[in-house]
Amino acid sequence: MNSRNMSFTSRRSLIKWGIYGIAGIAYTTIPPALVAQSNNRGKTLTFNANDEGILNFALLLEELEAAFYAGVVSSGKITNAKELEYMRYLGSQEAAHVKFLRSILADRVAFTTSDLSLNQTSLEAILSSRDRILNTAVTLEDVGVHAYNGAGPSLTNPTYILAAGSIVSVEARHAAGVRLLLNRPSTEPDSDRQVKDSDLNSALNPFKGRAYDELYTPKQIVSIVGSLNLLNNPISGALVA
Amino acid sequence: MNILLSPITNLFVRKSLVEMVQSLSFRLGIKDTFISIKNITDKAFIRTLNYAFITLISLAFLLSQAAPAHSQTMLSPRQVTEYALTLEKLEADFYRRGVSAAQNGGLQSAPQIAKDAIVSYGEDEAKHVTDLSAALRTIGGDPNAITIPASPNYNAILNRDPFANPTDFLLAGQYVEDLGVAAYKGQVQNLLAAGEAGKTILAAALEIHSVEARHAAGIRFLRQTLLGSDVRPWISTNAGRGEVIYNENRSGSPIPFSSDAFDGYATKDEVMALIGPILKLSQQSSEVPEAITSSTSRPSEPVQGLW
């Protein structure tokens, strides 16, 4: 199995893209991103069932999204100007989420960006066409929304739940925006949902159906993200058990 | 809005004190109270000339208020549900009128994709009304006691009829949906503070909150795509009042709300002040309520007769 490590340069570069993206300047660069190769699955990522574990779990999702959009922008497969602008902005916003989560976690952060090992083969396959890219973006964004919603009631720090709320609505805007680029509905039809109603944690979900972004458990999120086969690192801990 | 410092002479001292209050409030995890604390300090400044004295009484105020102040603006899960149901009833009614105008009114010329969105989002809001009503009953409330006027004054949004043409309807819809997102976000800390008693309503609010964000993004996308409006599905960095009608760019929080990567929130008082004219809450019966966007420094967008 091929794997790559995300280097620190990739994050700096993402932030750079964000800045240039906001300035509205078309700016392209080869994403340094994923350089080192190894057959190792990388560091085991452990998430505890507490605020710290939840924020680290959110960080993992944001890192994946940020790395994904970095790859998208450099893939050359998105040629429509509007679509490319969306990809750049989304990438810079995910990078801002990464930066924010790392700053509030500070010394409680569970892994560095370079600890993450991406599956190069899977990533390259996804980045092979515009349709695969945008549909994968929808999957990642929808999953992100369900993940933040699912984690919300488990948070105990009021600043953290407000921060999660501040981020999740941006992820929902991403999901809706990319869905509309694909002429898919901006809300998530039942048929698109990765967790069936019968598999939802009923204690977590008072309401179900299209009018709601249901709450998925971290375990369910790990399963969905795992099916994309993007991350090599083993995942463990009480949060995802 | 009360977030803005009024320009008076001792600005420097005011500013540093406000920053101190904000920083302390947030360190204590108190969000809703900091505005009211700031209001009171504002008043104290106007009344008092002695800087040292001001600092002293403000500090004393802070120390005495910081801990219990949370309860001043804290809403119970039932109060949050009643407030949310008010907003959902209004949104559902707004879309119901939109659907009607799309069939035989000012929105007939809207492209099918916009008409489909109006129908779909309206169905979502109607579902929220149904389900929140049931949830309110289970916690001892009466959904039928939550009412909106038979004919809400939607002209208050833009100071003109938002159902007259698709351009205005989508702009009004953007304002309403973005505000709805901010309103739900403004209640998550109250619901969290209620502990186990708030968990079900918190989950319900979260489930709805991000769907409202999808609606907001969808309407923004339609405005960009169909009208060429300079707007994106996300709220731009340092968004002005021509883009959102609440204060999206709060400072003094560890959360960088002014960034386009982070959405802001609105308190119940702020939201009610904005929708009061629509709900005809200021009972000056013959007086035409001021448009809720009229206080912005930027004029509302001109009517574009594209369709």
Draw up the topology in text:
The complex is a heterodimer of chains A (241) and B (307).
Chain A (H helix, E strand, L loop, with lengths): L3 E3 L1 H15 L11 E4 L7 E2 L4 H25 L5 H25 L11 E2 L1 H7 L3 H22 L6 H24 L36 H11 L6 E2 L5
Parallel strand pairs in A: 3-5
Antiparallel strand pairs in A: 1-2, 1-4
Helix pairs in contact in A: 1-3, 2-3, 2-5, 3-6, 5-6, 5-7
Chain B lengths: L10 H17 L5 H15 L3 H15 L4 H4 L3 H28 L7 H27 L16 H4 L7 H20 L2 H6 L5 H29 L40 H12 L28
Helix pairs in contact in B: 1-2, 2-3, 5-6, 5-8, 6-10, 8-10
Overview of this structure, please?
- The complex is a heterodimer of chains A (241) and B (307).
- By secondary structure, chain A is mostly helical.
- Chain A has a single domain (4-240), classed as Ferritin.
- Chain A is 54% helix and 5% strand.
- Chain A has seven helices and five strands; from the N terminus they run E-H-E-E-H-H-E-H-H-H-H-E.
- In chain A, the strands form two sheets. In chain A, strands 2-1-4 form a three-stranded antiparallel β-sheet. A two-stranded parallel sheet of chain A has the order 3-5.
- Chain A is globular, with a radius of gyration of 17 Å.
- By secondary structure, chain B is mainly alpha-helical.
- Chain B folds into two domains: 11-72; 75-279, Ferritin, core subunit, four-helix bundle (Ferritin), CATH 1.20.1260.10.
- Chain B is globular, with a radius of gyration of 20 Å.
- Mean pLDDT of chain B is 80; it is low at 1-72, 284-289 and 294-307.
- At the A-B interface, helix 3, helix 5 and helix 6 of A face helix 6, helix 8, helix 9 and helix 10 of B.
